Prior knowledge:
By secondary structure, this protein is an alpha+beta fold.
Amino acid sequence: xGEEKENYSKLKEFALQWGASLFGVCExxxxxxxxxxxxxxxxxxxxxGISLAVRLSDKIIDGIEHRPTKLYYYHYRQVNYFLDxxxxxxxxxxxxxxxxxxxxxxSQTIDWEKQRGHLSHKEVAQQAGLGWIGRNNxxxxxxxxxxxxxxxxxxxxxxSSDKPIEDWCGDCRDCLGICPAGAIKQRVEDFNHxxxxxxxxxxxxxxxxxxxxxxxxxxxxxxxx
Length: 225
Ligand code: B12
């Protein structure tokens, strides 16, 4: 086995043991989205993106009816902490082998006006073969649907790369019509980001929760069962 493949399988095994549900690697050169708050000097040479996903609790997601629950809010925060720790663990694994790892925060907004994070975890996950960007504008994995959260580690560790999945939502329209903001359309390109944000802002105030969350489109998408 070549060095890249051997590193890939050892790191994947490590991440799964730590609690990752999905693991994949992509070439950074394949990304269209730009990086924010990451200086070119810092990311220079980090040519691979490791995408990690953690499954959400089905019971908690199933409990969401018309608005986010307090249980979902708590779960959302814990899964974010868990993802950040997982990304840190992967970074330690890499640094212990004299290479670099940069864990990108799981859920941090850097530019509130444009509503952007450091990079798009969804795009990295899509390129790393974890799933596709569905009609609901979320990363859809064939097994878990959108009931996952994501994190990315940028690295120069020699790793083989995955390929994107050649599949899409097809005729499934489980997410159409359920969005309380009416943001989900037939085509993902028409997703109404502003309507989604305004509804999440309303939930934040009405439900007295400190984050912009909802969970209804996450619940609707169970993948290709
Ligand atoms: C800011 C933010 C928001 C903003 C919206 C920002 C926006 N306009 O996208 C608000 C607060 C409204 C929001 C809402 C939600 N969010 Co949010 N959010 C983020 C955050 C922190 C940054 C996103 C960002 O930078 N967007 C900027 C744009 C440019 O990037 P993008 O939307 O990801 O789009 C790229 C790809 O989708 C791709 N693309 C777009 N269309 C297509 C089509 C095809 C065919 C292909 C191949 C690619 C492609 O190109 C784009 C550019 O690179 C990310 C974490 C992160 N760093 O990624 C979480 C994140 C996207 N959110 C997430 C979630 C779950 C939600 C909510 C469900 C709320 C909740 N938790 O209950 C809703 C989702 C609504 C929906 N259906 O989209 C998850 C998504 C997980 C998943 N399974 O996909 C993320 C990844 C957090 C995480 N760590 O898991 N969010």
